[in-house]
Amino acid sequence: MKNKTYHIITFGCQMNERDSETLAGMLDTMGYAYTEDKTKADVVLLNTCSVRENADKRFFGVLGQLKHRRLAQPDMTVGVCGCMMQQEHVIAALKEKFPWVDLIFGTHNIHRFPQLLHEVREQHVHLTDIWAEGGAIVEQLPAKRAFSYKAYVNIMYGCNNFCTYCIVPYTRGRERSRQPTEILNEVRRLAESGTKEITLLGQNVNSYGKSRYEAGSYCMDDGVEGMDFAGLIRAIDKVSGIERIRFMTSHPKDISTDLIRAYGDCEHLCRHIHLPVQSGSDRVLQKMNRHYSRDQYLEIIDRLRKICPSIAVTTDIIVGFPGETEEDFRDTLDLVKKVRYDSAFTFLYSPRKGTPAEHFADQISQEVRHDRFNRLIEEIHRIQGEKSLDYQGKVLPVLVEGPSRTRSDVFTGRTDSSKVVDFPGAPEMTGKILPVRITRARTFSLYGEVEGNDSE
Ligand code: SAH
Ligand code: SF4
Ligand code: F3S
Question: Could you report the per-residue pLDDT of 9-42, keeping only the tens digit for each?
Fold first, then answer.
């Protein structure tokens, strides 16, 4: 008999992408086969994000498209999970407007998915299973990795920071760190199967380990007593086969001197840091509950650049936070000019239900938000374009990711600094780290040629 098929649609951040790999792994283990075609799959899962309103809207749009098929095919299963499901108002909206959805579960119980799916399909029932908080971390779940040469590795779950605009602490619960031995074993297994690049994932990787000490497990029998984030990087740096270490995301308030030093002495730590600043105004930073000042942030960047002058710095910035004045916004523009980011993700402030900032006075009009947003990206792109020119003529190691989206003879990869490089290539290059001479610099990407490649 032909295998039943599944399709997963993932919204949101790397955390969700990693969770979808686990869900895919579970479905494979249950005997389902992946299909690209969501219009034919027997099981369609939507793994949702709630960080901004746009993400919510896109989810409801895609879900709406599935209605006709689901109602016409009683044998099909539609499941929804992820961050949106941890919010009561979302569950209420689903029950009212999308009662045909078969399975609803949250971020804290994805290990229960096989059992839940089995019940839904065998007993033809609709199930909702949401846990308010995460229990102990469940290890050893299967995973179907999206790539063979690079991998995401969770090091911690949840967030304790409660930035006043952010929904994540409500959808992902309190901080919980994985044991170092579990992480190192996973990294070793990945290295053995050919993975070259590891991206360590957590909402605030700089506080890795703290929840373990608080839970009284500071001295575990794992031989890596009290390991903090920098210690973890140092340990992974020694794993044979791992050539690149990245991480997401680090909070400026918790960055340690030892992590800064690691940029000087860890051979495989990529010369790139994504350090979200959110705003360049002290007044706004305080209202955001970020626990650092613009000067403290600038000092961290100085210290990083002293140890590693070529480090690429990227960031996240929110414009139009409640109460943000023109002067506050100019402080952000000024900080952007001082740091000279290699690139930045810019977001229009989006009020999230249940967060403190939702009720702050002086919500900024759409018009002002958009105007500031445009001025900010203009500045960021100008600097990005100038910084790109520094790459011209250099020969850099590039991890080849595969053919570009538009042309099969043009391949794409990333430098150590995470800059995208396109070059004429061939399928056998995928997954290799090759020297590429940069011949042309554009604002968002570079163009080059693989050195010593005489195949054309
Ligand atoms: N844990 C990470 C960020 C996770 S969310 C960190 O602290 O850096 C990713 C980014 O989305 C944030 O850095 C922020 O810039 C943006 N963001 C979060 N909530 C938002 C909101 N309500 N409106 C607009 N942008 C938001
Ligand atoms: Fe959200 Fe702040 Fe936690 Fe990041 S650190 S996930 S922005 S609350
Ligand atoms: Fe979105 Fe949840 Fe990530 S809200 S950004 S998917 S942690």
Answer: 999 999 999 999 999 999 999 999 999 998 899 9
Architecture, CATH, for domain 395-450: Beta Barrel (2.40)
Atom 15 (ligand 1): residue with closest C-alpha?
A: 316
- DSSP conformational letter for 149: S
What are the structural domain ranges in the chain?
5-129, 147-270, 273-390, 395-450
d(CA 418, CA 401): 12
The finding on whether 166 has its CB within 6 A of some atom of ligand 1 is yes
In the three-class reduction of DSSP (H, G, I as helix; E, B as strand; rest coil), residue 374 is classed as helix
Chain segment 268-320, per-residue pLDDT in tens: 999 999 999 999 999 999 999 999 999 999 999 999 999 999 999 999 999 99
How far is the CA of 32 from the CAs of 23, 29, 43, 45, 106, in angstroms?
A: 11, 7, 9, 13, 21
Fold of 273-390: Transcription Regulator spoIIAA (3.30.750)
Which atom from ligand 3 is nearest to the alpha carbon of 55?
Answer: 1
If one residue of 53, 160, 171 were mutated to test the ligand 3 pocket, choosing by the most ligand atoms within 8 A of its CB, it would be: 171
Helices (H), 193-293: 210-214, 229-237, 257-265, 282-287
Atom of ligand 2 nearest to the CA of 290: 2
Indicate the burial class of 435 (C-beta count within 10 angstroms; 0-12, 13-18, 19 or more).
middle
C-alpha–C-alpha distance, residues 319 and 338, integer Å? 18
